[in-house]
Specification:
Two copies of one chain form a homodimer.
Chain A lengths: L23 E6 L11 E6 L4 E6 L7 H9 L8 E9 L5 H19 L6 E8 L6 H5 L2 H7 L5 H7 L8 E9 L2 E10 L12 E6 L5 H13 L16 E6 L14 H23 L7 E9 L2 H13 L1 H8 L5 H10 L10 E4 L2 E5 L2 E2 L5 H8 L3 E7 L5 E8 L3 H8 L4
Parallel strand pairs in A: 4-5, 8-9, 10-14
Antiparallel strand pairs in A: 1-2, 2-4, 3-9, 6-7, 7-8, 10-15, 11-12, 11-14, 12-13
Helix pairs in contact in A: 6-7, 8-10
Chain lengths: ~425, ~425
């Protein structure tokens, strides 16, 4: 894995210095599930009272671990909890044996950490369809438990990587009712989702005190404009998992409703962390050489705006044009047309950055191709479309489609 | 254009010897719309009494020519008719000027061929967003009319090509009520649709006598399992056009209902021509090195079966795996899961050709990776999925996603 060259879109400055979150401890180990010479298992231990919320892939062929986590979310927060993640093997489409692995790991982590099995959340990312050698993980659990440390956030972020070319972390601080609250999270990509090796996993931790149903509602809302607004290749993993844990150690008065003023402050901070992580996943999209923001306005509904934005962001022709630094606005028109959203060719306006390219059903009289070409040479592009029909808008993020994507995905497993 | 290397999937034997269709004459010319040194305009003249049916792109940003054709389909068949197609410029997203070009061409063709403008069907394929130099075409119309010949089917097929690497033709014969009937057709691709240069156009001619509403109903039905069951890159052109013309010169008793026994015979022949042409478009998909048939069975509904088949056929990860000759059935599982169709991971079976790869939620015990690898080296692949839930099925055709696709589309216009 270390052979992969770091994406040119990696954030300058490298992995951020994530603040420690009171009530969470991490440990990592080199178990040898598949990789050698690197950590490939991460254990997180959460104190009693931690509220846990999650969102998961909607795939109808989701993995045993995802099904297990989904059944556990929303459980009693009085006990402690634990998260166990391995990289190198997805334990997906492995039949009954896969379910048995999840049960075996859950049981063992519960025993080692002294928490109910109902509070153990596992995830696996890597190759599909191969049996998970869970015995190798079981043999390391005691050592992992002994190594637990509040500071091991970066090693944890690295241990869950697969085809990622850089580790992804983000954090925020806010004040809730006089208490300082911190949020630290990490994620791995690196296709939007490649089922082989690039399931999206993200774990976010905060010391805020917040009731589980409120945390879940906030996460459901925040994910729409963050992780559910990114796409690398339109493919959806069988294992996507995003879990947010609130330990309640910050000393703020518990947030019990989304209407609390503290709730808005916390939501904004949580949203910023999720957006940062989601955008880093796109920046590390397989083969990505351009980071593309697609803004749609003037739609008759938010749903239509998202349809148009995702149609543009998923279009192989738009994405290859970006890779070729070609200001090919005709392909944007095509993607609007095929989206299924209400659109009128003659009311459409298209911008590349601040350059008005097309309007009134034709190229703008002021647009010069040389300006478009110069703009497309940037690493970060904004494609903006106004449908001219209504008030609704949406923004999504994607990357270009390059020879690198073909190389990674045509040659991966064989 | 001639610089493009012929697809390795081109039919052996080259362009077929299309039978002449009584009642149709063709002419082509080198007008210089954009290309030089090749024919780029095709005129077809149809005798009085020709029934004309058509299906068109569903894009909401469709071109002026498509809108014009759609408004004319179903008109009075007593008069003659004409079809004019140019390559090199799509006259799409060219605002009012584009509509004026369509009107100018329609008026002039009507005058030259002595038919009502209401019976002139035009199409343009090529670059989007640039004004069509229709004066160059107008200046050649008299010469084209003088050159009209029943035998010029192959030159017509070649004149409408853009990024196609081979000309696409297909034909069939059948007997209707004692009369010999012929069907000859041609098409151009060559992405499923690239709005720049690869709009799908197809024109099919028959001497059968058939009432226009019946012809239209048959075409609507036949297109579902032919042209609407192919995909190269999931992108949809602004100009896709498929027109079928029935001159009525064969002397068969007019087909007046889809329930006629003659209707079934004719439908089968028409369907075979459309399927052949549609598959040739896929075989010439941009950069294609594998022709892939995706068969889905066991779905709860035909709609679900199509969803799954298209999800597999459009998945960049499935398509890059095919390009890499990787028997990566995990990606097929992923594509089933993301399709939105009803599916149960543990009832799914997957075959590559006759090789049973996965069943009961896991890899088949008899499957050997070496067999899968050997199978994937073929030029023509069959991916078969049984959902194990119901009786409905669907088949679609696609090609792989290769470096060639990126080269063609990342570098085209610039």
């Amino acid at each position: 894995m270390s052979a992969l060259k770091q994406s040119p879109l990696a954030p300058a400055g490298g992995f951020p210095d994530l603040p420690v979150v009171d009530g969470v401890r991490f440990a990592t180990g080199a178990v040898g599930v598949k990789y050698t010479g690197r950590d490939d298992v991460m254990l997180a231990e959460l104190c009693a009272g931690t509220a846990i919320a999650g969102v998961f892939t909607r795939s109808s062929t989701r993995s045993a671990a995802v099904l297990d986590c989904q059944a556990k979310i929303g459980g009693d927060a009085r006990d402690g909890a634990a998260i166990l993640v391995n990289s190198g093997n997805a334990n997906a489409f492995t039949g009954e044996r896969g379910q048995m692995s999840v049960q075996a790991l859950g049981r063992a982590v519960a025993a080692v950490c002294g928490v109910p099995q109902q509070r153990v959340f596992t995830a696996s990312t890597g190759v599909i369809g191969e049996p998970l050698p869970h015995d190798r993980i079981l043999a390391h659990l005691d050592a992992l438990q002994r190594d637990l440390s509040p500071a091991a956030l970066e090693p944890a972020a690295r241990a869950i990587m697969t085809t990622d070319t850089f580790a992804k972390g983000a954090w925020a601080r806010c004040r809730l009712g006089g208490a300082d609250v911190v949020i630290s999270g990490f994620a791995k990509g690196s296709g939007m989702i490649a089922p082989d090796m690039a399931t999206m996993l993200s774990y976010v931790f905060t010391d805020a005190k917040i009731a589980q149903p409120v945390l879940q509602a906030m996460l459901d809302r925040a994910v729409v404009s963050t992780f559910n607004s990114i796409t690398v290749d339109s493919d959806t993993s069988t294992s996507d998992t995003l879990i947010v844990c609130a330990t309640g150690k910050a000393g703020n008065g518990e947030i019990r409703s989304e209407d609390d003023s503290d709730a808005q402050t916390f939501f904004a901070a949580l949203h910023s962390v999720l957006l940062d992580l989601a955008q880093q996943v796109v920046r590390d999209g397989e083969g990505a050489s351009k980071f593309i923001e697609v803004q749609v306005s003037g739609a008759v509904s938010h749903q239509d705006a998202r349809k148009v934005a995702l149609s543009i962001a998923n279009s192989p022709l738009v994405k290859t044009a970006a890779a070729g630094e070609d200001p090919n606005w005709g392909r944007v028109v095509m993607a609007v047309g095929k989206s299924g959203a209400q659109a009128d060719r003659d009311r459409l306006s298209i911008w590349f950055g601040d350059l008005l390219v097309a309007e009134n059903g034709w190229v703008s009289p002021d647009y010069r191709e040389a300006d478009g070409q110069a703009y497309m040479k940037r690493d970060e592009l904004v494609v903006r479309v106004d449908l001219g029909l209504g008030e609704a808008g949406a923004t999504v993020w994607t990357c270009d489609l390059t020879h690198g994507y073909i190389e990674i995905n045509a040659d991966y497993r064989s």
